[in-house]
Amino acid sequence: MILGLLVLVLAERDFYAILGVGRRAGAAELKKAYHKKSVANHPDRCTEAERAACTSRFQDITRAYEVLSDEEKRRVYDQGGEEALLGFESNHNPNQQQALFNNWHGGAQPKGQATVVELSLPLETLYAGKSQSTLVRHKVKCPHCHGTGADSDADYPKCDNCNGRGVVIERHDLGNGYYQQYQHSCWKCGGEGRLIKKRCRVCHAATVKVVEDYVFLEVPPGAPDGHQLVFEGMGDQVLDFRYLPGDLIYVIRERKHPRFTRENTIHLRHKLTINLYEAFFGFNRTIVHLDGHLVPVSRTGITQPGETIRIPGEGMPRLNDIRGAHGDLFVDVTVVIPSLDNVKGTTLKDFRDILGRVVSK
Predict the structure, then answer these.
(1) Taking every annotated instance into account, which residue ranges of this chain make up the domain CR-type (predicted)?
(2) Of 110, 196, 206, 247, which one's alpha carbon is 20 to 30 angstroms from that of 128?
(3) pTM greater than 0.85 (yes/no)
(4) Cα-Cα-Cα-Cα dihedral of 8, 12, 16, 22, to 10°?
């Protein structure tokens, strides 16, 4: 008796069908599709009896997204299919899929993009430091539906058309005992594997919710321009739940000051204008510092135009210095020379005589 042989010809996995997207899908569409599929088929959401099947589907979904979201791998896959892709990866990094899958099972789960806020502060604040609470608004995974978009577990059943797989299989008879199988995205659930019967009452199927929290901003004395205040996990939760919420980062920006200029983060520079008499015979001045205390500046001899006077310890605080050390204050002196046209005859003669005696000494 001759037994007929049934040969099963299976097509390679269609990554586009697994994610339920077209072959021209862009990055945003791929990410959205992956998010929905991965949430619906996450092994932790399945019963013990379904866990093996969920894990297999989840691995397929992860693999599909890992390939299609990579421009070079997607090009190789589109041109030669999965067989060509495996050959390409054997010469590159064959462990990327496992790394993505491990993120869901105890691996180091990556963070989403950080939220960066620039904080413009005057030099007075950076000199003295400042502490205050501020209200921030950020997105978190919806605490009610946990990112499914459904109001309850009962409102998030498996699709009865694809049995929760997100794809359906069609078989085409090729004749003589041969046939070919294809899989494509389920028309009923749109490739999700699950149906939302009732939207979440909190996020209305957005899967994330905006909440308000207070953070305590503590600007240390001597903080330089570009100094960062980092609040871990206080950034927005992205829709791709492979990623944890990003950080909230405040970046300090120093405002320009009308009287002081900062140098090398710890030094200050100030301009002082004196008259010609003070340049020859000395002067006693005071500078009002950034915190209001007075800094005496005095000279007993001749001060040259453009001369710089250094006052140790009157600069900016050294950041995180437990001794409380400061940089220096540099005072640039400008001498104002009066116009001779404004000096009357006798006064001019007396003034010339005085200058002549001073210069001759």
Answers:
(1) 129-212
(2) 247
(3) no
(4) -80
